[in-house]
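Lab meeting minutes (informal)
Scribe: AK
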Amino acid sequence: MTLLEWFIFFLAIQVIHFLGTWKLYIKAGRKAWEAAIPVYNAVILMKIINRPWWWVILLFIPVINVIMLPVIWVETIRSFGKNSTTDTILVLVTLGLYIYYVNYMVDVNYIEDRDLKPRTATGEWVSSILFAVVAATLVHTYFMQPYTIPTGSLERTLLIGDFLFVSKFHYGARTPMTSVSFPMVHDTIPLVKTKSYNSDIQYPYFRLPGFQKIKRNDIVVFSWPVDTVRFFRDKSGINVYKPIDKKSNYVKRCVGIPGDSLSIIDGKVHINNEPLELPDRAKVQYSYNIETKTGFNPGNLYERYKLIYGKNLFPINNSGKFYAPELSEENAIKLKNNPYVSNVTTVISQKGTKDPSVFPNNGKVNWNYDNFGAIYIPEAGKTVKIDLESFSLYRRIIEVYEGSEMGIDNKLSVNGSQILLNGNPIDSYTFKQDYYWMMGDNRHNSEDSRAWGYVPANHIVGKPVFIWMSWDSNAKGFFNKIRWERLFTTVGGSGKPISYFYYFLIALIGWILFSKYRKRKKAS
C-alpha cells in the first residue's frame, strides 16, 4: 500500500470508530465529537475504559496493535456492563462490530469505577499470558531476536547448533511490513505447519534509527532476497509470494558494502582491487585435494583426520588421494606438514570457467564461485551506466527491489542495443537504496550473494551479538552435546572467544539470594 492508500485507510478506520462508539462516548460523560478526532479519540477511550494513556502508543506499533485491538474491543463493552462470555465471543468473532449493536440497539449504562481485576482464575491467566505475549513480541520485533544457525556456511566462525541473540537496534529495527501475522513466529506456525501471516495489507518500509552502519566483515542476519519457498526446510520447491519481512532469515558475512567494487580471484575476495582483510576470528574454509605418500596406508590418514577435524575425507578412485571439503587454511597448512602427506592443493575453479548457477544467472559471463566479477555494489543516490553488459547485473534491483516490492511496476526490456524501462529508453539508473554483498566463510559450501546477487538495505534484519547456547547434535550424551566453551560468548571482537557463562551463573545466584533477603527483610 502507498502512503496515500494508508492515509485513506486510516481515515476510514476513524469513521468506523466514530459511527460505532459516539453514543457510548456520550453515555460515559464525554462529547460525541471526541470520538471523531484521530489519536485524541483513542486517548479519551483509554480514560473511558480506565486504562493507561500509553496503551494508545501500543495501537500504533505494528504487530502489537493487532494484539491490542481485540483487548480494547473487550474492554470497551465491559465498561458498559457487557461482561458475559457470550458478549466477549461476539465482539471477537465480529472483529469489534458487535460494539455497533451495543452502541445503537442496547440500553447500557457506563460503569465508571469498573473493577479491572479479572473475576476468575481463567481471566487472570489470560491477562498474564496476554501481557507476556505483548512484552515478548515488542522485544522480539524491535530489540533482540533469538536465531539458530541451521547451516555450516559460516563454520568455523559460527557453528551449526549455535543459538544467537540478534540485535535489532544496532542497525536500526525494521518495523514489520506485514500487518497481520501470528506473534512470536516467523513465516510458519509451528506444529500445524501453516502460513503465519496474511500478506494482503502491507505497511510501507520503515527503519528506526540505529547507532551504527553495517561495516565490512560484519556478520549480518538478513531476509533471503530470492526466497519463494513457503517452508524454510521444505525441499519440494513450492513457489509462493513472501513479503520482505517474512522471507527466510540468512546469516552471512558482509564482505562488500555500498560503493565497493568487488571481485573474487582464485577464491580470494578483493575489494577495490585490494585483497579483503578478514578479522582474526574469521576461519575461511575451502575444499582441498590431498595426496598421500607411497607405502602409507591411506586408511590411517582417514581415521586420524576424522578424529582431529570431526569430518570425513572422501577417497578418490582408491589412488591414495582424498577430497577434503570444508577445511580451514590453517588446518590445510598443518595437514601439508603431515609426514604421510605429499601434497595438499586447493580446489579452485579456473578463471574463465563458466558456471550458469552464478549471479547474474544468465550463462553469459565466464564467472564461477572462485573467479568472479568485478562488479559494483550499488549505493543509494549513485548513478550507473545501463547497457547490454550491465543490464543483467541490475535487472532484479530495478524490477523487484526498487520495483514490485516497493509497489512500483518496473519492467526492463531490450530493443536491439537499447535498454528500455517501462518502454522508455534509458542509459543510466540512480539507485534508491543501499546494497550489500554477503558471503559465507565456508567458501565452497555456502549459498550466498555469488548465487543470487545483492542484498537490499530493506532486507537487513540485525546483527548477531551473543551466543547463549550451542548444541552439537552429533555428540553422544546430553552433557557432551552442549559446547560449554561457546556458551555466553560474543560473536564479534578479536582473539579467542571468552565464555561469560560462569559470570552469568554467579550474577544469577547473587540476584536470587538478594531477592530472597529483600523479601525477608520486607516481611519482618
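Next up, CB showed the second protein from the same session:
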Amino acid sequence: MTAAERREIVIAGGGFAGSILARALHAEGRDVLLLERGRHPRFALGESSTPLANLALERLAVRYGFDDLWDLAAHGRWRRRLPCVGRGLKRGFCFYEHEPGEAFSPGPASGRRLVVAASPDDDAADNQWLRADVDHFLFERARSEGVDCREETAVEVIPVPRDPGDGPVRLRAGDRTVEAGLLIDATGGSPLAASLGARERSPRLRTNLVYSHFAGVAPFECAEGWPDSPFPERWSASHHLLEEGWMYQLRFDDGSLSAGFLLTEAPAGAAEAVFVSLLDRYPSLGRQFAEGRPLRPVASRSGVAYRRDLAAGPGWLLLPHSYAFADPMFSTGIAWSLLAVERVADLCRDGVPAHGLLERYGSLLAAEADHIDRLLVAAYRLMPAMERFAAPAMVYFAAASFDELRQRLVDAPRDGWCWQGFLGADDGRCRLFQELDERSAAQGGNGSLAEWVGPAIERWNLIGLLDPRRCNAYPVDLEDMERRAAQVAADLGLDAAELRRRWPRLRSPDQLPVRRPARR
C-alpha cells in the first residue's frame, strides 16, 4: 500500500480566495498544497468588487509584497498593468424600481432610482471581476511562486475513527491519499463541508437564479433622460427591482455583460425561455437586450442561499462561501472572502492553529453570516418599492462606508482590521441590522421605516446619506466631508486637525508601498 502524502495545510478550491491564501501561507513558510477539481480557465460567479475588498487586497499586497494584488485593487492600476486579465469599471451601485408592462421612469425627485458612488473617478474605481480570467491568473501566480498546485483533482474526506483534535484529516485527492494537518475548504459550497461534519441549515432566503454572460446588450437607458448622476450609470453594479425579485447587470470593459435574475419563486420552463419572458414583462429591459446574445447557454440554479452549522472543527475550517451564502444584492462576497483570507493567514502564521483559535474564527464567521442574512432578508421583504427598499440600502451603505473611511484614516488595531467583524457584525451595527430585520418583518416596510432609518444610521453615516438635496444620487464628495470634518473626526475617534492631516490616506499611491516582508 502506498504511504499517504503528508502536508501541513491543504486548500481545496483554486478560486481567487484559495489561490491568494495559498500564496500568503507559502510566503509565511508553510507547506501548502492547493487542489482544484476543474481546470482553469473556468466560469464562476461572484464578480463585483467593493472598496472593502480593495482594502483587503491592498493589505495583503503590502504584507507579502504581492504587486499584482495591489494592481487588482483599483481599476486604473489593473487596466495599465494587467490588461490581459478581464475586468469592468465599477464606479458604484445603481438601483431601479420597475413596474410590469411600463417603461422605467426615475419618478419625481428620482424617487424610483438610487445611485451611490464608491469612488471619485475611474482610476481609483472598483472592478467587476471576469472570474474565469482572475481565478486563472491568481492560480498560476500561486504556482509560479512555488505553491504545489494541482488541477483536475477532486477532494474527498476519508472517514476514520478519531477523537476531536487527534491526528490529521485524511483525504483522497485524485489518485492519492493525503494527510492534512489542516484542511481549508475554499470550494464555495461543495459537499466537502458536509463530510467534515458541517451540516446543512435551512436558510431564510429561498431564491433561484437564471443567468449568463451576454454580448451586444445596450446600456440601460431612461426614455426621459437621466437626472444628474455622479458617474455614467452603465459602469455600476446595476440592480433592477422587480415584482419577481431583482436583476443584476455587471458590464465588462470588453463590452460583454454578466446578467441574471434572482427570483423568489421557482421558475417554470427552460432557463433561456424564463429569461426572455422576464425581459418581455419589463419593456425597458426588453429594449436593452433586443440585440443581445448569450455568450454561454443561459443556465439556472435553484436554492441559491445555503448555510452550514459549523465553520471550523478539529483539523479543518471553511472559507465564507463554503460556510454560507445568502444573496449577491450588495456585493458582499469578495470582500468577506478576502477578510477571511487575511484571518486564516494570520491564524496559520506559525503552523496549524490550535482548536481554540479555530473556534474563534468559526464564531466570528457565524456572527457575520447572521449579520449579512438580516440585511438581505430585510431587502427582499421591502423591495421592489424604492421608498421601502431605501431603508436596507441606507443601512448597508452607512455600515460599509464607515468601515472604508475607518480603515483608511484610523490606525489599525493590534490584531489588524481582519479581526474586526465584517460590516460591524461585532459592534453597535449588529443591533442596527437586527432592528432593520425586526422592523421589516413587523411593519412590512410602511412609513415608519423611513422615519426610523435616518436617526438609526446617524452614528455611522459619514458620507451624507439621506440628504434630500442629493435626490437619491450620492457622489464621493470629499469636499463635503472636509466641511463636516469635526463630526466625521468625532465619529472616527480623531480630532479634526489630525483628520485633515490624514486626508491623503484616502488615495492609494499608484505603486505598491515599501514591502514589509512576511516572516519565514
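CB comment: The longest helix spans residues 355-382.
No objections, moving on.
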